[in-house]
Specification:
Layout: H1 33-37, H2 42-64, H3 66-80, H4 94-98
């Protein structure tokens, strides 16, 4: 099941990781009352706990091996050419999109 994230532009500037885990029944419509109702289920609690452990252990791995951070930065530079240019025109007023 696809979805969106706010990670797009950030991932062109700094190495990023995206964790996905199950927290509701397959086929549940996103942003729905059905999804909200399932937050009280054991599958939701297990999914959130799994995600939290994954994030914590990944963070510990990077803290324990700073060379992994350097490797991630080098890989990102290789994939992006070390350059990022916003698809928005320099004349674009961001506040226009916030209103």
């Amino acid at each position: 099941i696809g979805g969106g994230t706010d990670l797009g532009d950030v991932s062109y500037v700094v190495p990023t990781v995206h964790v996905q885990t199950t927290t509701y029944a397959n086929g549940t419509p996103g942003h729905s009352w059905q999804q909200v109702a399932q937050t009280c289920t054991s599958i939701a609690h297990k999914g959130v706990l799994f995600a939290a452990k994954t994030i914590a252990l990944t963070s510990l791995a990077f803290l324990a091996s700073p060379e992994l951070i350097d490797q991630a930065k080098m890989e990102l530079r290789k994939k992006t050419g070390g350059e990022y240019s916003s698809p928005l025109s320099p004349d674009t007023k961001i506040s226009h999109f916030l209103n």
